[in-house]
Amino acid sequence: MKKIMGILYIFLLLTFQLFAQSGTKLIGFDASTLGRGGVSIGFFDSPDLMMTNPAGISFLKNSMVDANFSLMVPSLHFSNVLNDVSGKTNYFPMPDISYVADPNSDLTWGVGFFTQGGMGADFSLDNALFVNQNGSYMPQTYHSKLAVMQGGPSVSYKFTPSFSVGLSAQLVYSMLEFQMPYSLSPSIMAGVVNPQTGMTFAQMFAAPQTQGGFGYTEVTAAANMKDLSAVSFTGRIGFAYQVNNKLTLGLTYSLPTPLTYKNGKAAMDMTAQLNDAFGKAVMGYMFQNPSSTQQEAQAAVMQQFSQMGIDLSKGAIDNYNLQVKLKLPQSIGFGAAYQATKDLKLGLDFEWVNWKNAFDKMTIDLSNGSNPNIKTMMGNNGTFEINFPMDWKDVVLVKVGGEYKVNSALTLRAGFAYGNNPVPSSTIFPVFPAIVESHITLGAGYQVTNSVTINAAYELGLNFKETASNPSIIANEYTQSTSQLGTNLFHVSLAWNL
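The structure assignment produced for this chain is given below.
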């Protein structure tokens, strides 16, 4: 037993290194389950039940160790008025390992560590604000990473030979990164330009140029938010019922999981925005003073900025301490499995995932900023909060699948999973593209010895395309843009009956 726990501990440490990746939320956690579309809640045959329905481990036939490795290869594409490009091809390894003991007694327990999922993307995109002196676009990095790992013990108790109740209590570890031009309404700039009139930077940046403003509907900073990590706890309860020797049923509930990402760093660079504003101010000055040279206009505008408390020699770059709040959703699932013939077994899962109450917004807390220009424009002491809108919708996930035992050694599997896209058109943007709806899976298992079985599966997340609304509430650059995502996933696992 000590050896097994040691292996699990080493695996956890290694996974935290591999787990600095990203990907979409998985529909299953083991190659045998994934081969049949992720059907698991009422299909009592794998330790990955600890992630779906812990009560089901009571009906495993043997103590067992299961080690799974998955490789995700997403395919992304984005287009808007300035871009029509594919995202970088990334390869995301996602390991899992689990152990279940004493399934032949009333009390069964297990422990497992699982890559729960995540999402992310990498693009190099043109943005209308970021141009050089020649007017050529300077491609910007658009990057995201959300990775979630969880693990811990599960217990299941058989109240009768056909009914059990199970509980899982798991530690959740997550990592988060963002890098992209980050746009906000000018209203966030609460600093006062003129104390006598009370005019704010928000009013000046938003006012039409004919009224002495800059005419901006948004202000943008090149943002790089990194080093964020969160530790939390979650749990689930499950019920398993063996109706007869052909039909089994399962019911499960998973708790919502609040995540507070701490110890992050954020670099916010408003240089491009301030340069654009300066250029508009110079043009406005020359229009009002046609006899002035460009150098005279620049000197006059620098003096105007200085009177507003902006020292252009100090730039518009600042570094902040960063904290982000997010939540993983609660879910309710029901599953059934039916032994149709001696060799054919079929299964069905329904799951409701409450994304609406989890990904309604992402709260971003920035603190300890030191650049006086940004403090003056924002009207704060270098500490402020931003609510990033997400407005995701609830998902109903349906999984159907089955397996056919060809002979005593070989089992073939197939399945299909469908869940409606949770991301609304108003908040879709290229580095948070969790929009895949349909998954087709194929798999096989081969019993090498009486104790060892190798399982493999291929999962195709069918390409899905979504067009952003007009307007996008994330940023103007995403208005009526198109994001596409498809995935290829490869799974292999080793099941060892003890």
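Interim note for the steering committee: Helices lie at 2-18, 31-35, 201-206, 271-288, 294-307, 355-358, 372-378. The longest helix spans residues 271-288.
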